[in-house]
Structure formats: C-alpha cells, structure tokens
Give the backbone structure.
Amino acid sequence: MKRIMLVVSYDGTAYAGWQFQPGQPTIEGELNKALSGLTREDIHVVGASRTDAGVHAEGNVCIFDTESRIPAEKFCYALNTHLPEDIVVQNSEEVPNWFHPRKCRCIKTYEYKIWNADHVRPFNRKYTNFVYHDLDIDKMRAGAAYLVGEHDFTGYCSIHTTVPDHVRTILAADVIKEGDLITIRVTGNGFLYNMVRIIAGTLIQVGDGTKSPEDVKKALDACDRSLAGPTAPAMGLTLVRIDYPAKNRAEYDKDDIKE
Amino acid sequence: MKRIMLVVSYDGTAYAGWQFQPGQPTIEGELNKALSGLTREDIHVVGASRTDAGVHAEGNVCIFDTESRIPAEKFCYALNTHLPEDIVVQNSEEVPNWFHPRKCRCIKTYEYKIWNADHVRPFNRKYTNFVYHDLDIDKMRAGAAYLVGEHDFTGYCSIHTTVPDHVRTILAADVIKEGDLITIRVTGNGFLYNMVRIIAGTLIQVGDGTKSPEDVKKALDACDRSLAGPTAPAMGLTLVRIDYPAKNRAEYDKDDIKE
C-alpha cells in the first residue's frame, strides 16, 4: 500500500465544485472515477481544498492510497488519459502514509482575476470577472495591505461558515496590473468560506470608489461581514498552489496531525 | 449612409471559420445576424481576414454600411448584447466610404501559441497547441529569422491556395518564451493560405530537432512545400491585430483601391 499525492489543475466552469455530490459533476467525483477505473480499486481521494462551484485551480492537492504497481510519478500521465479535458493532473508523487493534505500545515495561494476594460475578452471570459468601471489600482493596493498579518477574518467570511475559529494569517496580498488584467494575489495559512471572493468584492469596491481603502480595515476590525463588499463571482477565482513547508513528520507532529 | 468599421475578437473553437457558410456557425454569419437584428436592415459585413475553422482573433476587422442612427462608437456596446459570448466587438468607428478592409494596404500580426510542458494547462487548452517535447527556443529563433524580409512564400503556403502571387513581406518573426508558453509572433503585409500555421509547424520541428534552422531557409529558397513542416493545428493560431497605416485616401489611392 502506498500513498500518492496529486497536484490537480482544472477549469471549474462545468463543475459543481470539488466535493463529491451524487448526480452532480464534481472534480472529486471525476478523480475517483478515473482512479478507480485505472487501478481497478475503489479509490476515494482526500482533497486539500474543497473549492466551490465554478472556482478553478492551477494546483489543488489530493491524496489516495493504492496497491497499484503503476510508479507514483507515472500516475499523472496514465490518469490524464482517463480524465475529461478540463481536469489535468500536473504531478504525482509518493508521500509518507502519515501525510494528510488538510491536517498538515500548508500555505495556499489564490488569485482573483479581473478583466478591467470596455469589453469582455473572449479568451479569458470564463476565468476573469469582467468589470468595466475604471479601477484605481493604488487604492486597491492600499486596501489590500490592511489584510496582511494575523487577524480575525469574521468580517471576510460567509455567514454560513461552520468553522468556529476565524483567526487566519495572510502572508501577502498583492494587486498586480498587466494591461487590462488585474490580479489580486493572496497567500495565507488558511482561508475561511468565501474569504478570497469577499476580499476581491471589497477591493473592487475600493477600486471603483464605492469604498475607501480604510473601509477594508473597518470591516476587519469590526468583524462585521456587512461592512465588507459583496462576494465576487466564482469564475474569477483560481487556487494557484498549495505548499507544505514542513520537511518531515516530526515537524508536522508539532501541528498535531490526526491520523 | 455611413460606413462603420468593427474590430472583432472571437474564440474560434465553436466556429467553421470567419466566412459565411449556410447551415454552419461562422463569425461572419453571427455578425450579419446580430447587425441585421439591431438595425432592421439586411447587413452583410466585409471582413479583412477570412480566418479558418478553429482560428481565433483578438482583432479582426470588418466594415458594413448602414442608415442606422446609432452613433458609430456606440455600435460595439449595442452589438455585444446581440452576439454570442465567444464573439466580442472591441471597437466601432466610422470610416470613409472608400475604405475597404481587404483592398486597403494593411499590416497583420498573428500569434501561434504553444504550451510546452509535461501536461496540458486546462485554461488555455483551446488557445494553444500542446507540445511535450522540449523545444529549443534559440534554434526556433534562428529559423524564424530566415523568414523576415520579402520572399516568395510558395514553400510556406497550402498547395490549395488559389492566389497566383506568392511574394509577401514579413516585417518581424519573433519567438517569445514566458514560462511554459511559447509564442511565435509574425507581422507582415499579407499572408498566404495556411502560411502562419506552416511556419509554426516548421519552427516546432526546428525546436524539437527534426529540422535544423537552415532547413527553414531551404524550404523558402526551393519554394517547395514538401520541405517545410506540417500545418500546425488551428487552435494555436490567433489573428492579433490589423493596422491600416495610410492616413488618407491619396495614400491609399497609390495602392489602387478598387471601389
């Protein structure tokens, strides 16, 4: 029995999200089906991030256990021939059997992409949120800067969240402009439900003048969801990568991995 | 009566090309339908470039004549509400009634995009040609350099071409690498049938070692299509822009515009 980790990219447009739901197209469902077909085992992957309907990923992470004799690093090639064209496994490798993608400490990077022009661009219409109001990048950057550090992000999570602890650390929050494309890039040690999309919705309002950069801090300090902006549409959000910085089990054990 | 010029972007994936064909989805057909619906006139656009099935455009150009009282620069906004989401008009403006998008001298820029990695990237799978062999960019650049200038491009056009004169001038031919994305960018005063796709197919063979950079020159000098590489797939090709450098009718008249 070996444990294999996959790095999975997907265009989330056609899916009801990562998490398996009977009768719905999901990333997890497609991976389970392709892996079970390939290995002739009953495989259920465990994912790092249960992305929402319509959200994309450059590199979500999941694991599964198998008796298969396919070499771990060849799994991605074999698997991609069994997957639909909008899901592509970018890497596969063996990991220790204590490794768990959600219980092990990690750093996640998300990008929220905005196409800020007079007209939609057909090529990224499914991967960007189209905003035609002029956005002030300097103000968006000033607003984003208030989010960096350890904060209670109650003001920036869905009221439907079920997690009790809302304290998270954002390590970096950048606003990058390349031509008409604006990318909000956020890196942190964990994100609450809808957190990046609410950050994006708030920074768009800062950019178009509806809010001031200081309003970003006000919603944060007040822990008041109603002071932040709307939840920006899912199509603009991409989970870019997940890094597991600890190098061995002893380091992870400090984080109390539950096996 | 006024003449309006449109700059049209489209994802060509779902279309049988620019040119109207009864019973087939075409860019020209969709534009005629949307414009006729909007103006209540029977509009037939005249396009600058009849792109092939599956080829994309950032900025193809077309004109039409109308009695409509919609201001020329507002046409794009009105029109985009009538068009499918994979065709977006980026600009509309009035042009003199002698202006003709094919008969007036122009400079066209095409990009052929290659995703050169171990695995497909879901987000650009429809806009790039996936090549997993390592491509040598320096060799591709050396090969591309032979194409610049005025040449008889018989070796680089489809044997099905119907145009008698195969002399064209390529003003620039660059090979740009950004991460795993390789872009062949070609600018010229005119292109023969399949010319950019044959250039791309040849440069890919130079990149993977099947051909040498000097083989690019050999196919050119010999005017022999069989010495060039295969026609690369349509999905990688985008017509980026068309520029009309002359500023007035007198300048165009030198080019013998036929009205």
